[in-house]
Every structure is written in C-alpha cells, then in structure tokens.
Amino acid sequence: MTPLQRRVLAVAILLTLITGLAQLLVVPTIAAYSNVKGEIAEKTALLDRYGGLSARQERLQAMIEERRQHLEDDPLFLKAPTESLTTAKLQEHVREAIEQTGGSIQAIESLPTIEKGNALHQINVRVDIIGDIRDAKEILGYIEGGEPVLFVERVDILANLVHLGDEPRIERDLRLRMLISGYWQKPQ
Fold first, then answer.
1. Residue 6 domain flag
2. Which of 60, 77, 158, 184 is the most buried (most CB within 10 A)?
3. Among 77, 29, 85, which Cα is nearest to 185's?
4. Is pTM, for the whole model, over 0.85?
C-alpha cells in the first residue's frame, strides 16, 4: 500500500469515526434538546393559563365575598348565629305579630329545619291561635308583609259549633293552625 492510499484510508477511517461519534452523541443530544424545548413551551403555556386562572379566582373570590356581605346585610333573612337561636327569633317574631294584631297564642312548636342548599336553611314553626276572622286576616298580613320575609305554608281553620236554642251557630272565635317558615343563611 502506498503512502497516498494509507492517507486516504486514514482520512476515510477518521471521517467514519467522526460520523459515528456524531450519530452516537450529537443526534441524540439535538433530539433531547428539541424535546426539552417543546416541554418548556408546553409548561410555559400551562403557567400562563394557571396565572390567568389565579387572577380570575381572585376576582371571583372578591365577588363571592361581596355577595356574602350583601346577604348578611339582607333584611329578608332571619338573622342569628345558630340554627337554635334563629328558631327562637322566628318564634318571638311570630308571637309579637300575633299579640299585636289581637290574636291569642295557644301553642307554638318548632319543627325540623330543612336544608335548602349549601348554607340556606328553612326554619319552620307551627302555631295554634285563637281569634276571629279579622284577627286572622291581620295576622296573615303582618306575618307575610314584614321583614324578615316569612311564609305561611299552610292554614287550617277550625270553628266550634255552639248550640243556642234549636239552632247551632259557629262560635265567633276560630282556632287557626299555621305552618310558618323563614330562611336563615348559615354563617360561613
């Protein structure tokens, strides 16, 4: 083999080694770099999205707090720190309404509370009243027309028959049984 052939062979072997090393080292490094670059772009997009969600969450949290404050100041709801105190306030409010309008309470009974949502509860009482028809009208108007907003869910009217001589007559005073409810916003 001549020196020129040896040189050509040496250069060919050297080029083969360089190409092989490039295939083994450089190509995987470039591929890994491309994958990392794609992951970085994906993670950056996710971070931007989460940053937007965080800002949106802060706005929503402020809106929720504003709404909660509005509900706390709302005169339509029964107000008390606990369910038991709310029921007692409802009973007292109903008692005052009946006494102011001329009725006479025979009984007032707390009924089970009904949960109407996450923090909204329906507070119920049953009331037995003695009064005439005008008293009943005034009591219903007073209870349903004031604040907090109360609802008369059911009214049962019972009349007593009295016998005066040969003819039975309805006694002037009626017995009214009412189911009254109001709503309480449970404190957060």
1. yes
2. 184
3. 77
4. no
